[in-house]
Write a structure and sequence with these properties.
Length: about 170
C-alpha cells in the first residue's frame, strides 16, 4: 500500500481530498490528547476561551493517545469523552482525528460537516516512539500523561476510515 505524505498543518482542501482506505504518513507537529484533555478543549472552545490554543488547533491532527516515557499508542476513539469531542474540535479547525476503533455514524456526519476525517493507526508503541522528533506540553499539566501535548513527528502512519459522511 502506497503512503501519501501529509505535512502539518493540514489544509481544508487536503482533508477534503482524502479518500476512504487511503494510507498516509504524517510529518510535522501533531497534538496528542484523550479522555482528560479533549473534553476540556471542547468546553474552552464553546466558551470562546481557547486563546493561544486556537492557533494550534487550526489545521491540526489530534492523535487519541497519552504521552508517557513508556511510549505512545492509540486509545479507543469511541470512548464517550473522546468521540464526543470529534465534531466540536473539527468545528474549530482539527482536520484529522487519529486513533483506533469505530466511531458512530452521527460522529462521522458531524466531523464531515466541518471537512475533517477520522483515521486509524496501528497500536505499535515502539514503532510510533521512533517517529517522535520532539515533544512539548501545551495545556493541562495536572493531567500528567493525559495532558494536551504537541509532538513533532516524522512518518506516523494512518489509514482513512471515515470521511465525507461515510465510514468503512
Amino acid at each position: 500500500m502506497e503512503l501519501i505524505r501529509l505535512e502539518t498543518p493540514i489544509t481544508a482542501a487536503t482533508a477534503r481530498a482524502l479518500l476512504l482506505g487511503q494510507a498516509f504518513a504524517i510529518h510535522g507537529k501533531i497534538l496528542c490528547g484523550r479522555d482528560a484533555a479533549l473534553p476540556r478543549l471542547v468546553k474552552m472552545a464553546a466558551a470562546g476561551q481557547l486563546g493561544d490554543l486556537a492557533r494550534h488547533l487550526e489545521g491540526s491532527v489530534i492523535f487519541h493517545t497519552a504521552v508517557s516515557p513508556a511510549g505512545i499508542g492509540p486509545t479507543s476513539s469511541n470512548k464517550v469523552e473522546i468521540e464526543s469531542s470529534i465534531a466540536p474540535l473539527s468545528a474549530v479547525g482539527v482536520r484529522i482525528h487519529l486513533g483506533k476503533g469505530a466511531i458512530s455514524a452521527e460522529t462521522v456526519r458531524g466531523m464531515s460537516a466541518h471537512g475533517s476525517v477520522f483515521a486509524v493507526t496501528p497500536p505499535a508503541t515502539a514503532l510510533l516512539m521512533d517517529r517522535i522528533v520532539s515533544r512539548k506540553l501545551l495545556a493541562f499539566p495536572e493531567e500528567g500523561m493525559e495532558a494536551l501535548w504537541e509532538l513533532e513527528v516524522s512518518g506516523i502512519p494512518g489509514i482513512v476510515v471515515a470521511a465525507h459522511g461515510v465510514t468503512r
